[in-house]
Structure formats: structure tokens, C-alpha cells
Amino acid sequence: MQSQTAIFSKLVKDFMRRVPLAVETGVPCARLIERLAAEDASSATVTDGQGRPLGIITEQDITRRVALRALPETPVEDVMTAPVMTIPADEYLYFAIARMRRHGLRHMPVVDAGGGLVGMLDLHDALAVAAERLVGQIDILTRDDSLDGLKQIKAAQVELAAQLLEDNLPAPEIQALLTHVNRDIYRRLVDLSLLAMEAEGHGPPPVGFCVVVMGSGGRGENFLYPDQDNGFILGDYPDDRHTEIDSWFIELAERLTGDLDAVGIPLCHGHVMATNPLWRKTLTQWKEQIALWSRKRNPTALRLCDIFFDFRSAWGDAAMAEELRAVVTRVTSANPVFLRDMYADDAEHGVALGFFRRFITERKDKEHKGKINLKHTGTLPLVESVRLLALSEGVENLSTLGRMRVLHESGFLGVDEYDYLFGAYTLITRLLLRQQVADFKAGVPVSNYVDPKFLTERERDMLVDSFKAIRALRGRVKDEFSVEVLGTP
User: Fold this and answer.
1) N- to C-terminal Cα separation, the chain
2) What does DSSP assign to residue 452?
3) For residue 276, what are the contacts with CB-CB under 8 A and spacing of at least 6?
4) What share of the chain is helix, strand, coil (3-state, %, to 5)?
5) Alpha-carbon distance 180 to 386, whole Å?
């Protein structure tokens, strides 16, 4: 039996029609009609010489614009609907459904990362996957771009997470979906800010730029209420224009971070936001900053690297983020001493497991006494260890499970080690997400604390095994980056 909430984890590429009818400009309408009939197609995409969609012609277009109105030799570009709205193949299916419903579309061309046509999505096919009761929730999760609409989207995430947990969707997949929704909120708020700034006389962006998210947002591992970890990568510009250009981006940063806070993505208490000049630099300045951090290797520099190295583009020129990612990979994979120092700075982050398989619980914080902080003593030591190994091996994948998979495929992680670590991450994230949903429904502050007394016996046994697997991995990481192995003093 298909899951009733499967729609929220499916991608467009899994439901598109893979061989869409496509014609290039210049093809006569008569020829197009013949091909539509011969291939029993209800639409055709008009493409340029590189296979990128320029427009679309549907059965309705044939009826309204061609039949008895256009000469048979009329080129298709004269009657097509353009510009055409497209959807990436890797986009979530629910997002495509919402867009098609909002714009009254029955067909939408599907494109790859380069903008080339790879399929056609039919609204009827897509809706067949969605339970009728969920269509309303899809509409809420893709509301209009007003602040009120985005607030409703953020609030709807909790109910969605609860439904997906009940449906036994793996927690990492739920995290990926929550992150996707949050990045979409970023994209919409940046667009709103740019429109408002231009209308108010600030003008368009003075240089190209990219908004990046860091930490769990970069890895695709958001829980319910992540705070803001964001920054700007700016196109290079002359030094004598710094005051003018930086002032423009300060204005954008203040608007964006304020709006994010207003819709439910709170300000970062550590000021890891584009309003802080440390996280707002040109591409060249970022490259210099990474090189400086790798040379200085003091505790402050190492912690800043810990925050930054999981960055991902959320809006704008993604090529800037990709170029910077290549720099990070090159610098870290060639600098084992730097990685050793990063490990030393993270060494205190152990798992909450003591002698005789007993959990180490909170003692100082009265509010959470007797509970386990599953983020600081569970996911954090695992995420940090896997990140270090990935950086050492030149792995550019950002998600924790994705990094594990690459390390396993390369032979770095054995079958059993990979299996235990995969299970550990999946279990701990599920327990954390379940607790956060329960906290929200109980009307108490959402936190990362779980009371082991409320776990089943099987869950406690699995959690012990998970902690042991993570502890073993950290021991291996310690050996990998030890002074003796590196042969350094």
C-alpha cells in the first residue's frame, strides 16, 4: 500500500514522461500537428538549438491559435506560449503540483541542471500520487510570497513532519524536505527584498552575488526550528567602490535576516549572518579567508571553519559557491595538519555513553536534568567525524549520509562500519525529530533533549549500539589525524 504522504518525498524526475515531444523553431505548424497525432501527445515543447525550452504548444493552443487561424506553414514559434514555465528534474513533486495548480497549467517541461529539456510533467499524473486530503496542505506549503504566507508555510512544517514520522518515512528524508522548504523561504524572501529595494530607490544589485546557508541548512539536515546561519558571496569589485557596494548589501542583509526571523527562522545568537561582515565577502576575499584560516589554525579560526565548511547556495549565482567549494576541498585535502587541529578542537564532543552501557544524562541544567542532548552528544560527534574524513578524502558531498556513502563506495568505510553508522544517524535523527514534534504539540520549547525513560527497551538498546559505533568512529578519526600518523612534531 502506497504511503499517504509519499508525495512529499517524491521528485519530479520520478513521475515525468521521459520522452517529451520537442520541436525546434522554424518547424511548420502543419508538421507539428502531424507529429502530435502520430505520437498521441497532448503538448509539444519548442526548443532552441541547445535543447532548452523556449515555449510550449498544447492542444488548447492548437484549437485557439492554429485551427482555422494560422497557415499550415506558420512556424511554431509564432503560436507557442512563451516564455514557458519549467521545473527542475530534482525538484520535489509537491512543489511542481502547487505551481501548476496556481498557474492553471496542465503540462510543464522538466529540465536538467543545464536547462535542457529532459521530460514533461502532466498534472494528472502528478495528482494521482497525492491523496486528496493532502492537496490543501500542499497549497499551504507553497503559499504566496507575502510574509503572512511564508509564516503559514513555516508553521505547516511541524504538522508535515508529524505526518511523515507517523508514515515511517526515514528521518533524514524528512530533514531534507524541511531544509528544502526553508531554502525556498530564503529564495522568496531574497526576491521580495530585491523588489522592495529597487522600488524604494536602492537600485538593482551592484554586483552579482550568492546567498549561502551553512551548518544543517547546507547539509540538508534541518530539524524543526533551525536558526539562521547564512552569508553572502559577492562578485569582485574595485576597492574604491567598497563603501557604496557594501552599504547596498548591508541593507539587503538587514532586510533578509529580519524577515527570516519574522516568519519563524530565528536570528543566530552567534551572529553567523550576512549582517556580520565576517560572513559577507567577495569571492576573492572568501578564498583569502579560507587560506588564512588554514594557516592560523587557532581555536577561533577552527570553529569558524566548522561553521562555514558545510555551506550551500540558497539563492543567486550558484557557480560562486561551487568555485568556493572547490577551493575548500583543495585546501583541506592537502593539509592534514589543519584537519588534525580541527579534530583536536572537536575532541571534547563525545557521545552520551558511560561505563556498563549507561547513558550520560544532563546534570547541571535543571530544566533538562536526567535527559540526553541528542544533538550535542549524538549527531554532532558523528557529523563532525564524517565531515573530517570527507574533507581529508576530497569528498564534496555535503550531507552526512551522502558523505558516508561515498566513503563506503571508495572502500574507506567497511560494510559493517557503514551499516552501523548509517543506522546510528537514522535512529538518532528520528528520536530527535519525534521529540521536537512532541515538544511542539505539548506547548513547551522545542529542544534537543530526550528522556531515556520514555524510550522503548529496543530503542534504548539501539541507541547504546549507535553511541558505540560513533565512539568507535571517533577513535578511528583520532588515529587518522594523530601526530604519529602524520609524522609531524
Assistant:
1) 61
2) G
3) none
4) 55, 10, 30
5) 22
236: its cell numbers: 569582485
Burial class (CB in 10 A: 0-12, 13-18, 19+), 199: exposed
Bridging pattern class, strands 107-111 and 87-88: parallel
Kind of pairing, strands 107-111 and 230-234? Answer: unpaired
According to DSSP, the β-strands at 117-122 and 107-111 are: antiparallel
Q: Are 42 and 89 in contact (CB under 8 A)?
A: no
pLDDT in tens, 214-258: 999 999 999 998 989 999 999 999 999 999 999 999 999 999 999
Of 376, 358, 383, 336, give the one whose Cα is nearest residue 468.
Answer: 358
* Separation CA 74–CA 68 (nearest Å): 12
CB 219 within 8 Å of CB 390 = no
DSSP letters of 320-386?
HHHHHHHHHHHHHHT-HHHHHHHHHHHTT---SB-GGG-B----S-GGGTT-EETIIIIIHHHHHHH
**How far is the CA of 105 from the CAs of 19, 430, 461, in angstroms?**
19, 37, 51
Give the SS3 label for residue 67. Answer: coil
Could you tell me the CA-to-CA distances from 245 to 127, 204, 234, 242, 275 in Å, in that order?
Answer: 46, 11, 10, 5, 14
Domains of the chain are 6-122 (3.10.580.10), 143-330 (3.30.460.10), 338-486 (1.20.120)
Q: Is 313 helix (H, G, I), strand (E, B) or coil?
A: strand
| pLDDT tens track for 12-64 | 998 888 777 899 999 998 898 889 888 888 889 999 988 899 999 988 777 77
